[in-house]
Structures are given as structure tokens and as C-alpha cells.
Amino acid sequence: MDAAEIREYAGLMRELGLTALEISRDGHSLRLERGAGTAAAAAPDSRAGESAAVRSPMVGVFYAAPAENAAPFAAVGDTVEKGQTLCLIEAMKLMNEIKAEFSGVVTEVCAANGQTVDYGAELFRIRRS
Q: How far is residue 72's CA from residue 68's CA, in Å, rounded to a whole number?
């Protein structure tokens, strides 16, 4: 695999909203991962008290908990912090952690465990704190 192919895969990841991609070909494996990027210096959030939706960045299967009999990552009434894992989305046999982009209180879980969700589907509603 050459640099041009790797760049092509990275572009595909951006296009599909994937956070990780693993490719095996001709006895070689390549795993690409990308983070959320770096954030600017934190400023006070003037939108405190507003409710906002957390949407799926990809098509996949929604999992509310890390295992079948485990407690969900986030439930209605839970206080979540920015960067906290809210759920998993399985896409292309990869588990992608969906993290809170801001702190707040979960007011609604909009997807059912095991449900297939589309890109942009509403997963959670969170009241900013």
C-alpha cells in the first residue's frame, strides 16, 4: 500500500464519518483512526439550559451499553460530561464510541438498543449545563 492509497482511505473515512478503518490485503493490515481533533480554548457556554441533539455521525447499529447485560453508558436523567462515551455505533464490524460534545443532562434517548441508525439520526437529547 502506498501513500496515495492511504490518503484515499483517509478521505473515505472523512466522507463516511468513520472514526476508524481497518484494511487487510495481500497479507498486510492497515488500521486508520482519527480523533475529534483539538478544541479551541474553552469559553463559558452561553447556551446553558438549551436542549441539543446528539446525532449519529454514520450509518450503523446503535448499542446503548458496552455489553448485553451491562448498564447503559447514558440514560435519561444522567449528567454527562464533555468527552464521555454515550453509546457505540457498530459500522463495518468496528465499534465506534460516540462521545458527548458538551456537558449536560440526558433528557431523551432517541434510539433503541440494537436499532440500525442512519447518518444524522438523533441519538440523544441533552440539556446543556
A: 9
Work out the pLDDT band at 42, boundaries 50, 70, 90: very low
DSSP state of 16: H
Instruction: Report which of 69, 89, 76, 84 is spatially closest to residue 126, judged by C-alpha positions.
Output: 76
Grid cell listed for 14: 472523512
User: No. of H helices and E strands in the chain?
Assistant: 1, 10
Question: What pLDDT does 48 receive?
Answer: 66
Q: What is the pTM of this model?
A: 0.64
H or E element at residue 19: none
Which residue in 86, 111, 106 sits closest to 96, CA to CA?
86
